[in-house]
């Protein structure tokens, strides 16, 4: 322990980062790191972009804070207008907050308020997916299937109905016909709890850290929309991680079509992370106009107050980031990055020491997941106690590469994967460097594992 900062992780010495430029971070000892995950899948335009810093400085000089219930301000108006251009038709009213968890918390509360104001006060059930992650505040955590985060607070969490997430690598013997893959798992859960009791279904359109960038099959969200329409349930697309261009379209849900060939319409979209690309905390809800109009005609206001909502400084950063993304055509760049990234990372399964622990490489756009397994033929995960992904992250850092770990996706406890989510404007040579550092780190991790006797494999075997 040093100094007076209460760090989240208490038994590690954290390097001090003193600056960042492009895809690189530099620490106080002069070591350079390639930020292969943009921190927590955030830094999508790279570090140290001058025009974003200028926009923030200019806004700070002009007006940094007003309360969102008393005043409006130009940056939030302009950012809302800009987001509306990307939003599905009619889902175009933006409510700004500071973090992804806050956006999810607000979205879930909004779904309840909407139903109550329509007189359907019995609608209180939330359906979410496992694996899945929506944040760390208590309602968002209730909707998150992350045991390691939930355990301590279990007595305080609400009952959220969990259905299996579409997870192609672990779809089981039924494969693409499995209820989790077709959307029928949602139909079953709605029937079980009574459709009239369900307020909302929340899902990450493209899997984030929880399923390691798993991509649900075509037709999945068409079925989700159909069910939500049939039973009056709100569909909340949690785009905190996969939105703002990360997967090569502005929203993850844009990769899917409804039965009539049109867009799959969410009722509420949550955004965070790439919305501000790390330049200041900002999240947003994009809400269907008819939902807001119902509340406008009813109580007249959203029952959700936060001091920093609709903040001009954060919105100015968001506006500058969105304009930068548009000016440099970075969503298209994220799309073209996808095959380049997967081709390179795919070589990890075939070449070099450590290929035997790489079970799967997948993803979309500038989002890729690498799943580590004890046995490639059975897909058996390593036991959690072996801390395999922790070793890999440590080896990556040693090799000058930042990646994002996740655990528990295989069976709730076991499972190791990492996410690669570089800035969209990463260059070819930087991609080569990322892959090479990854290869070195995977090989070192495999050596450490193989040095452990007896060989590691989790008791739970998953086909
Ligand atoms: C899909 C998703 N939703 C919500 C959150 C919570 O966001 P935050 O950590 O900014 O509160 C995350 C964070 O990882 C996320 O990936």
How would you briefly describe this protein structure?
The protein folds into two domains: 152 residues, Aspartate Aminotransferase, domain 1, CATH 3.90.1150; 276 residues, Aspartate Aminotransferase, domain 2, CATH 3.40.640.10. It contains 14 helices and 15 strands.
Q: In CATH terms, what is the architecture of the largest domain?
A: 3-Layer(aba) Sandwich
SS-derived structural category: alpha/beta
CATH class group of the largest domain: Alpha Beta
| CATH topology value of the largest domain | Aspartate Aminotransferase, domain 2
Quote the average pLDDT: 95
CATH superfamily of the largest domain: Type I PLP-dependent aspartate aminotransferase-like (Major domain)
List the helices and strands and how they pair.
Blueprint (H helix, E strand, L loop, with lengths): L16 E5 L2 E4 L4 E4 L2 H4 L8 H13 L11 H13 L6 E5 L2 H18 L7 E6 L7 H5 L4 H4 L10 E4 L14 H4 L1 H10 L4 E6 L16 H12 L2 E5 L29 E4 L11 E5 L1 H9 L14 H16 L2 H17 L11 E7 L2 E6 L15 H11 L2 E2 L1 E4 L8 E5 L7 H23 L13
Helix pairs in contact: 2-11, 3-11, 12-14, 13-14
Bound molecules: pyridoxal-5'-phosphate.
């Amino acid at each position: 322990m040093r100094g007076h900062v209460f760090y989240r992780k208490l038994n590690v010495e954290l390097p001090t980062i003193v600056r960042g430029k492009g895809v690189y971070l530099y620490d106080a000892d002069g070591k350079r790191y390639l930020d292969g995950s943009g921190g927590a899948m955030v830094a999508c335009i790279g570090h140290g972009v001058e025009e974003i810093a200028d926009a923030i400085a200019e806004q700070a000089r002009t007006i940094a804070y007003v309360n969102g219930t008393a005043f409006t301000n130009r940056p939030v108006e302009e950012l809302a207008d800009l987001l509306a251009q990307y939003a599905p038709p009619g889902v175009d009213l933006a409510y700004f907050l500071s973090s992804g968890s806050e956006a999810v918390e607000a979205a879930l509360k909004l779904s309840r308020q909407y139903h109550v104001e329509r007189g359907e006060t019995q609608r209180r059930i939330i359906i979410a997916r496992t694996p899945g992650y929506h944040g760390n505040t208590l309602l968002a955590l209730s909707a998150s299937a992350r045991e390691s985060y939930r355990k301590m607070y279990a007595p305080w969490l609400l009952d959220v109905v969990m259905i299996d997430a579409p997870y192609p690598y672990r779809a089981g013997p039924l494969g693409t016909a499995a209820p989790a893959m077709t959307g029928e798992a949602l139909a079953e859960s709605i029937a079980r709890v009574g459709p009239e009791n369900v307020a909302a279904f929340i899902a990450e359109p493209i899997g984030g850290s929880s399923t390691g960038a798993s991509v649900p099959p075509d037709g999945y969200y068409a079925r989700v929309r159909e069910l939500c329409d049939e039973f009056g349930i709100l569909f909340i697309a949690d785009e905190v991680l996969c939105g703002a261009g990360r997967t090569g379209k502005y929203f993850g849900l844009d990769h899917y079509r409804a039965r009539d060939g049109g867009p799959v319409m969410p009722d509420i979209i949550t955004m965070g992370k790439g919305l501000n690309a790390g330049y200041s905390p900002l999240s947003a809800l994009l809400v269907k106009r008819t939902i807001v109009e119902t509340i406008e005609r009813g109580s007249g206001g959203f029952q959700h107050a936060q001091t920093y909502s609709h903040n001009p400084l954060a919105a100015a950063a968001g506006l500058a980031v969105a304009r930068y993304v548009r000016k440099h055509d970075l969503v298209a760049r994220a799309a073209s990055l996808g095959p380049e990234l997967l081709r390179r990372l795919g070589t990890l399964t075939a070449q070099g020491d450590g290929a035997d622990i790489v079970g799967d490489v997948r993803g979309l756009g500038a989002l890729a997941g690498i799943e580590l397994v004890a046995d490639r033929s059975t897909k058996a995960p390593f036991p959690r106690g072996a801390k395999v992904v922790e070793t890999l992250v440590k080896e990556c850092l040693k090799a000058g590469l930042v990646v994002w770990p996740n655990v528990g996706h295989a069976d709730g406890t076991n499972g190791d994967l990492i996410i690669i989510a570089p800035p969209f404007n990463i260059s070819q040579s930087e991609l080569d460097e990322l892959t090479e550092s990854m290869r070195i780190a995977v090989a070192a991790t495999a050596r450490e594992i193989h040095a452990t006797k007896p060989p590691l494999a989790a008791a739970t075997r998953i086909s």
